[in-house]
Amino acid sequence: MLITDLHNKFLECYERSGRKFIKPVPVVANDDPDLMFIISGMVPFKKYFCGDAKAPHSRMYNAQPCIRTVDLVDVGDVKHLTYFEMLGNWSFGNVDRRGSITNAWLFLTETLRIPANRLVVTVFKGDTEKNIPPDITSIDIWRELGLRSDQIFFLGKDNFWGPAGADGPCGPCTEIHYDRLGGPLPERFPEDDTDERFMEIWNAGVFLEYHKSADGHMQSIAGPGLAAGAGLERLASVVQEVPSVYDTDEMSILLAQVRADCRLHSTGRDLSQGRKVVDHIRAISAIAAEGVKPGRDGPSHVLRRLIRRAYAVFAAHGEWDNDLSDLLHLATDQLGRRYPHLKATLYQTSITVAGEIRSFETPLRRGMDDLDELLGRQSLEVSETDLISLNGRHGLPRDIAIAVVEGRGGKVIGEDYKNVYAQHRHVSKGDQGRIK
After folding, report:
1. What does the alpha-carbon distance between residue 402 and residue 409 come to, in Å, rounded to a whole number?
2. Which CA distances in Å does 357 have to 90, 236, 267, 277, 308?
């Protein structure tokens, strides 16, 4: 099943449930002072959950493009993305746990025919300090649906969602994860999000029963609600039986183009670099389509960073003349099937990206030359301090620099990157540790 077909099947299924379809909003969160981007499908409905406005319908559904930069460091693995699409459903004034959990389970196991024995769920175990009880109701529903005890795991903060920003609605949630390996299940669920055995594919319900204030105070909401959603790309990777989101039908075409252009291998750091370019091109298309220009703050800074990181991969492999236009056209053609406005703004997006690349090429060349000089002077060894300095002076991304070092047969030595970077930010006065 192609990703667009999966997207449409979800919308058709939830239309039949009697919910009202709501159009997606722009990925730049212009109306939310706490956020730069729409980081989840719930964000456009935040005003309704907070009681700042009355929801036009009590039950709604949609497909919402999102941008999440907190995952940028993990992009390139099997499941993390900067740009992703959320398939969501929403209820206002009630918390229909049973309906939300059951609908999600049946869509996965009956509509998509995903084997039930390859799915596990997590449930909120409670928080005695905040006087929030465990979610026993969800546990009972999962058992009624036929899940074995070893398929149900209890988690703490990872199963308590929100708020989206400094304050707002929040509550316990229950999530469905796909077991990539199969076989005997562990006694404890891995709480490290870099684990590659289990992949969250559906938050079957965020039960928005509380409001958290900026000072951390938690209180019950008079009119509770429910938010639920599935990641389209992750769900597609399961349905298409491929090893990662980057191997799904659309992104695999983009990845093949990047590999051909840059002559990348299909394993190791080359694989990671290629995946990052694919991710960044999709995010660039979505952000630039809204008229955002590269700059030093907010969404403009994120766009600049994404363009530079993508272009640096090509430059590191000798493709200095590639302005990313071919990839932009390909990504826009794919995403434009679901979000037509991307096609309408492609020309302006291409001009924006090409302009940023022109301004970045000269300092990037200097950074590459300085890196080569360091490698020659220091017996193919560079330190984390060297890499941070190159980034600060020339905007050479750390991961690109490491790829160049390893490609020359060298290695990075010295202290842990996080410690060195923290020290650098402490002493820096000019750019306050901004990564260009």
Report:
1. 11
2. 41, 32, 27, 14, 7
**CA-CA distance, 348 to 255, in Å (whole number)?**
24
Task: Give me the phi and psi of 392, to 5 degrees please.
Answer: -65, -40
Task: Please state the CATH superfamily assignment of the domain spanning residues 3-239 in this structure.
Answer: Bira Bifunctional Protein; Domain 2 (3.30.930.10)
- Residues 291-348 have pLDDT tens digits of 999 999 999 999 999 999 999 999 989 999 999 999 999 999 999 999 999 999 999 9
Exposure string over 219-250, b if 16+ CB within 10 A, otherwise e: eebeebbbbbbbbbbbbbbbbeebebbbbbbb
Residue type, 405: V
Residue 368 parent element (H or E): helix 346-377
Dihedral of CA atoms 319, 252, 349, 69 in degrees, nearest 10, equals -100
CATH 3.30.930.10 in the chain: give the residue spans: 3-239
C-alpha–C-alpha distance, residues 68 and 36, integer Å = 10
The tens digit of pLDDT for each residue in 217-275 reads 888 887 789 999 999 999 999 999 999 999 999 999 999 999 999 999 888 888 999 99
- Cα gap 83→232, rounded to integer Å: 11
Closest CA to 109 of 238, 215, 218, 298: 238
The residue written with tokens 């795991």 in the block is: 153
**Is 78 strand, coil or helix?**
coil
pTM tops 0.85, yes or no: yes
Neighbouring residues of 304: CB distance < 8 A, sequence distance ≥ 6: 294, 295, 296, 356, 436
Note whether 332 and 322 are within 8 A (CB): no
